[in-house]
Amino acid sequence: MLGFLKEPVVVTAKINVNLVALTVMGLMSRLWGLCYPRAVVFDEVYYGQFVSLYMKRIFFVDDSGPPFGHMLLALGGYLGGFDGNFLWNRIGAEYSMNVPVWSLRLLPALAGALCVPLAYQILVELHFSHCAALGAALLILLENSLITQSRFMLLESILIFFILLAVLSYLKFYNLQKHSAFSGSWWFWLVLTGVACSCAVGVKYMGLFTYMLLLATAGLHFWHMIGDQNLSNVSLLCHFLARGLALIIIPMGLYLSFFYVHLALLYRSGPHDQIMTSAFQASLEGGLARITQGQPLEVAYGSQITLRNVLGKPMQCWLHSHTNTYPIRYENGRGSSHQQQVTCYPFKDVNNWWIVKDPGMQQLVVSNPPRPVRHGHIVQLVHGITTRYLNTHDVAAPLSPHSQEVSCYIDYNISMPAQNLWRVEIVNRESDTDVWKTILSEVRFVHVNTSAVLKASGVIGASLPEWGYRQLEVVGEKLSKGYHQSMVWNVEEHRYGKSQEQKEREVELHSPTQMDISKNLSFMAKFTELQWKILTLKNEDTEHKYSSSALDWITMDTNIAYWLHPTSGAQIHLLGNVATWASANTAALVYLCLSLWYLLRRRRKIYDIPEDAWQLWVSAGGICAGGWAVNYLPFFLMEKTLFLYHYLPAVTFQILLIPVVLQHLSDHLCRSVLLKSMFSALLVGWFSSVYFVYCTFSPVTYGQPALPPTELRALRWKDTWNILIRKQ
Which of 153, 187, 324, 700 is the most exposed place for a label (fewest CB within 10 A)? Predict the structure, then answer.
């Protein structure tokens, strides 16, 4: 029974020495001296703030993209024991001893290092020679810009890693298609393709470009499968469902999981809360939750409320009034009603309180039992401090003459009667009998007499002059189809009024039954709101010293100074390998010209290369040239501040195109032995130039050694490069 123990257990494995050597070299090039400089480098000042907020579990919103990349950077900080205590306020600031610099920079460096073997494997899976694959990997290894970007707490190297992993996974899946469909390895690489695409999108939305490319490629391949008569309808359906599951359903689920983890980690209130809705804010620990805890859920007649405008940008504000009146005449000569001003005020204030009154009754307290206000009910809104009624009429607003003025009515005993009835319309209602709820309900107030809608026009326009204390204008906007968020309000603070006397009402306190708003806000509601904020929240784009245009990237007419030593000439720049970038541009041009030539000749039934070589040329171009195009051309349509590092995913694909073109030229255009020998000699000389440029610019890639001013001037190969030279 134990006879098998008489023989030794032998395990055999195939080891690709090329792959191992490339991985080791990639790790050495990215991990060497990773803690240097021990100071904040360029956008580390930006991402570091988010890492600190993760460590402290404080909620934030970053309009640059989804949270997965930030979470990976925070993971490095967590593994290094970072407590989040560091002031990220200045590039070049020295890190304190509690900041684990090596851990924070580790994951981007590992991702950058692994891009080297990934490049090798992609060329192998495209059915190019191991020599061409080795060339592609070495070009990625010696690319100065990729080294610089991967050695700091930045996201581009992580993005490129997932992009290349997605491409490699799809190629491996596709190559298994004919002989091992639905096998374990087939499923593994198909699912990994979707997972890698989702991770790429989760790091930065630039990952969508490669994701769309792979979806289009998968769609084209499936279209060809439909024409295969050897596949049954059932088999085609299974293939379709498998691709839909792995390339669409799983990535969507994984993308949602990034936000789920993000929201689970960041449960504390923070400085970014204000751009979120009241319901979202109330779901966070501290902040608004401390104020709203224990509030009544249902708004009733007699409720004392504050009304927050839902739009919340460029700043949040609350419906507000004060004793001051509109001037009799504005500066442009137009007249006003001289009624009490109503504004939208961006700070919490006692004058933000209003009382919901039943027009048919005089009392300003909540009855027992409370009578809830429902969708469609008519109410009057009484200003809590001045006890004047919210009113609008056919008088032009101060800043928006096409809209009606909104005021608190003062009876001047003239022919201007009060018009203070408002219909409550719950925008997010589930039925027409819904009750108006604290925080959760988004409502519009429609004026009964004129059908105008209460709108915080100042949120999207200018603020009032000095007579209005620079507060934001509120108007009555004529009812139209659809609505803007500036017309929508929600109750943020709420208590049941108990005192009919004005003085007592101003100081009354409350202690209603506890009500946890956070339980009423689902993950999908929070995800939808956060996703919308990320997509629509735009910081003001300002011209940056190192910003550039997409045209500058191809010829590398720009650079970015990442760090400068405070005393020596040591510095770090984002600069590409000039020889590699020039070769990549040449390869792209050659590929385009040859492709057009071949297409024209094939149209005339002239076939210069075998059919399998043509298919190889097209498929490799679809991945490499296509990857460059989809990651580069969209930037011409973007209205945002652009930097050289935005081009790195595109140039990575373009670099992969170089060995594709070189092998094609060697195999099909260099037909004689002499030509092949000359071509090989040129390749050696060309690659030597790539290595020479890498070594020349290594001091400003790694930041050491510090170079004297004369050598720094020698590195300014282009007048547009901003190499920093200290005055002697």
Answer: 324
